[in-house]
Design goal:
The protein has 146 residues and is mostly helical. The protein has 5 helices and 2 strands. A two-stranded parallel ribbon has the order 1-2.
């Protein structure tokens, strides 16, 4: 849902061509569509998840990313443990609001949990989308200095 919300916002702002937005999970079932509740909640927000196919994060995807945004500290910790070279470009989505806290995955929970999660994500991304650009610029600057 986070990737779809961010993608919708950059496209609405005319910046869609400037971003490559990917979604991958730390623990998921490759090839699965978005859950029915995620699809319903996002459709109500005018965003489709029709093309979403679950996939597990891998070294290639992380290597190619300028910024990696995760939902929880356990996701961050798991990625750093398996791929220590990504630490400098890894952020919690809550950091878009200047804080560090987990945004829980609503998978398997009731519809109200999906709705609350989507609302939280939308607020974080709306308020903090400029911060993603700052993170991407910092990542590019690090690469230039290597």
């Amino acid at each position: 849902m986070a990737a779809a919300i961010f993608r919708a916002q950059v496209e609405a702002g005319g910046e869609g061509a400037q971003w490559r937005i990917e979604s991958a999970g730390t623990w998921g079932v490759d090839g699965s569509p978005a859950s029915a509740l995620a699809q319903t909640v996002m459709t109500q927000r005018g965003i489709t998840l029709d093309g979403h196919i679950a996939r597990t994060v891998d070294q290639e995807l992380l290597r190619d990313a300028d910024v990696i945004v995760v939902m929880t500290r356990s996701h961050r910790d798991a990625l750093v443990a398996e791929f220590p070279n990504v630490r400098e470009k890894l952020y919690l989505i809550s950091e878009l609001n200047g804080f560090e806290y987990d945004v829980a995955d609503p998978y398997g929970r009731p519809r109200a949990t999906y709705e609350a999660c989507a609302e939280t994500l939308e607020q974080l991304i709306t308020r903090g989308s400029a911060r993603v650009a700052q993170w991407a610029n910092a990542s590019a600057a690090r690469l230039e200095n290597v």
